[in-house]
């Protein structure tokens, strides 16, 4: 892993590709995610976002790119599932990823804490670790920057009660964030075309994560099949 500053430099104005497949998806397999990451690298990606220690380990053996790591975990009684507790953060630190992304919404986490309560503990335990805040609203992202997150993402817009039904990518949210925040704003969620990506860079984003449009063939197939059926 490179130094924190170096990592942020490496992803500046660059494309990050998310290589993820959950257990209920047909491509669920560390082997396949490793090859996806390799293809993304050869295609010009400058960073990878990945879920789970198994996938991350395999991806590291296939590409040497900055890695945003998450662990998705569903706990009963909470809707927070992207790196929801200290436990997943500890696992990611042990494995070693350049940036740990975690839910930074205003929702109560599975252990009953808020991000305001949890994040300061993580920051003091891991002062040199970069953290990305996966947010759904403007207020959450501003709060995350105040809390000391190193970068903020629009990852969860459209996926929380407050933002259900928002059209993605969330240009409006992202534009407001780039206008206001000093920390890097990473556009993520629903970026479907190179034209959308270009428009987001024109809005001043630091970098962008594209997932499904590149690495989820089931979803891509659906879009084509829809016009045929
Ligand atoms: C909401 C949620 O679970 N988002 C996840 C976050 O890691 C991934 O499933 C997305 O694929 C990723 O954010 C990239 O977004 P898109 O696949 O739309 O380009």
Automatic annotation (TrEMBL):
Alphabetic keyword roster: Carbohydrate metabolism, Isomerase
MF term (GO), any: N-acylglucosamine-6-phosphate 2-epimerase activity
Pathway participation: Amino-sugar metabolism; N-acetylneuraminate degradation; D-fructose 6-phosphate from N-acetylneuraminate: step 3/5
GO cellular component: cytosol
GO biological process: carbohydrate metabolic process; N-acetylmannosamine catabolic process; N-acetylneuraminate catabolic process
Its EC number(s): 5.1.3.9
Reaction(s) this enzyme catalyzes, per UniProt: an N-acyl-D-glucosamine 6-phosphate = an N-acyl-D-mannosamine 6-phosphate
InterPro entries hit by this protein: Aldolase_TIM, NanE, RibuloseP-bd_barrel
UniProt KW Nucleotidyltransferase keyword: no
Family annotation (HAMAP family): ManNAc6P_epimer
Role this protein plays: Converts N-acetylmannosamine-6-phosphate (ManNAc-6-P) to N-acetylglucosamine-6-phosphate (GlcNAc-6-P).
Family indicated by similarity: Belongs to the NanE family.
The protein's name: Putative N-acetylmannosamine-6-phosphate 2-epimerase
Source organism: Cohnella faecalis
């Amino acid at each position: 892993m490179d130094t924190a500053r170096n990592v942020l430099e490496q992803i500046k104005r660059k494309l990050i590709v998310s290589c993820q497949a959950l257990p209920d998806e047909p491509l669920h397999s560390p082997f396949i995610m490793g090859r996806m990451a390799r293809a993304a690298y050869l295609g010009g990606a400058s960073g990878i976002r990945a879920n789970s220690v198994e996938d991350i380990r395999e991806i590291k053996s296939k590409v040497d790119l900055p890695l945003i790591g998450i662990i998705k975990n569903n706990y009963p009684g909470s809707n927070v599932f992207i790196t929801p507790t200290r436990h997943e953060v500890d696992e990611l630190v042990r494995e070693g990823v350049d940036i740990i992304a975690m839910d930074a919404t205003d929702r109560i986490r599975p252990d009953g804490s808020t991000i305001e309560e949890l994040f300061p503990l993580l920051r003091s335990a891991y002062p040199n670790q970069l953290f990305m805040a996966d947010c759904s609203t403007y207020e959450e992202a501003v709060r995350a920057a105040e809390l000391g997150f190193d970068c903020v993402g629009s990852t969860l817009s459209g996926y929380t009660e407050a933002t259900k039904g928002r059209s993605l990518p969330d240009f409006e949210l992202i534009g407001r964030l780039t206008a206001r925040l000093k920390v890097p704003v990473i556009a993520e969620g629903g970026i479907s075309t190179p034209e959308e990506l270009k428009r987001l860079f024109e809005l001043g984003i630091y970098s962008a994560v594209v997932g499904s449009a590149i690495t989820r063939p089931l979803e891509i197939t659906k879009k084509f099949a829809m016009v045929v059926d």
